[in-house]
């Protein structure tokens, strides 16, 4: 049975917003079936954010509120709004909740566009360069806002599909820490902080599938 990520909080996680941040990890390179490669390659095919997207009535309130919350992290307002519009566009395009994607970015890069981990993961969503070789093109730049978010969202969606909707395990795969609770707990905690509402929380056994 699938649950919204907002209802999935692993047992043992203190619900305090100020929980210690997780460290960026690294996706593990795996052999992919040709059909999977083809599907992922189609998913990252260039499809730019429409120019008026940030001003569409259905996302204006979200962009405005998230812009307020991120003002100290991304100080330039124009850059911040472009970033948020791209997050919303790429997340929903991949069938993900934009708040969940913000939670991933919060803990993977701390909203730093040019972040590089010790494992060479790059950009906002800390995408590993091997993904370019597997499903992309050599001219793809993982420090480009849209490219990084497109890859990150497609990869997270891929892991979520592999894990049949289990956010705990999908997030573990994304961070290269499958089976360990710290990263999924931290991401979900951050994502809850960025939500516009205050959803009810269901506590599940650590590592259990929703």
Explain the overall architecture.
The protein has 210 residues and is mainly α. The chain has one domain: Orthogonal Bundle (Lysozyme). Helices cover 44% and strands 3% of the residues. A two-stranded parallel ribbon has the order 1-2. Helix 2 crosses helix 3, helix 3 runs parallel beside helix 6 and helix 7 crosses helix 8. The termini are close together.
Topology of this structure?
Layout: E1 8-10, H1 34-43, H2 60-69, H3 77-93, H4 98-108, H5 130-135, H6 145-162, H7 167-175, H8 182-193, E2 202-204
Parallel strand pairs: 1-2
Helix pairs in contact: 2-3, 3-6, 4-8, 6-7, 7-8
Largest sheet strand order: 1-2
Radius of gyration, in angstroms, nearest whole number: 16 Å
Write the CATH architecture name.
Answer: Orthogonal Bundle
Mean pLDDT equals 82
Unreliable segments of 5+ consecutive residues: 9-23, 198-210
SSE order: EHHHHHHHHE
In terms of DSSP E residues, the strand content is under 5%
Examine the coordinates and then state which fold CATH places here, giving the name of the CATH topology.
Answer: Lysozyme
How many domains, as an integer? Answer: 1
Helix content: 40-55%
Judging from the principal axes of the Cα atoms, what is the shape? globular
For the largest beta-sheet, the strand count, sense and barrel status come to:
2 strands, parallel
State the name of the first-level CATH class: Mainly Alpha
Based on the structure, what is the oligomeric state of the protein chains? single chain
Number of helices: 8
For the record, give the distance between the C-alpha atoms at the N and C termini, rounded to a whole number: 6 Å
Q: Give the total of beta strands.
A: 2
């Amino acid at each position: 049975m699938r649950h919204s990520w907002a209802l999935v909080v692993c047992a043992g996680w203190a619900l305090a917003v100020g929980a210690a941040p997780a460290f960026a990890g690294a996706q593990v390179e795996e052999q992919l079936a040709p059909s999977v490669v083809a599907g992922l390659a189609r998913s990252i095919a260039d499809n730019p954010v429409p120019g008026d997207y940030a001003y569409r009535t259905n996302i204006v309130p979200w962009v405005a509120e998230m812009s307020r919350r991120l003002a100290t992290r991304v100080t330039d307002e124009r850059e911040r709004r472009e970033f948020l519009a791209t997050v919303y566009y790429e997340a929903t395009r991949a069938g993900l909740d934009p708040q969940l994607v913000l939670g991933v970015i919060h803990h993977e890069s701390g909203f730093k566009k040019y972040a590089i981990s010790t494992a060479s993961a790059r950009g906002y969503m800390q995408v590993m360069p091997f993904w370019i070789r597997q499903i992309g093109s050599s001219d793809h730049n993982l420090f480009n806002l849209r490219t990084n978010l497109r890859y990150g969202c497609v990869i997270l969606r891929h892991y979520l599909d592999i894990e049949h909707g289990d956010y705990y395990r999908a997030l573990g795969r994304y961070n290269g820490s499958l089976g360990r609770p710290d990263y999924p707990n931290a991401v979900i905690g951050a994502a809850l902080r960025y939500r516009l509402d205050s959803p009810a929380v269901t506590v599940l056994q650590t590592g259990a599938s929703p």
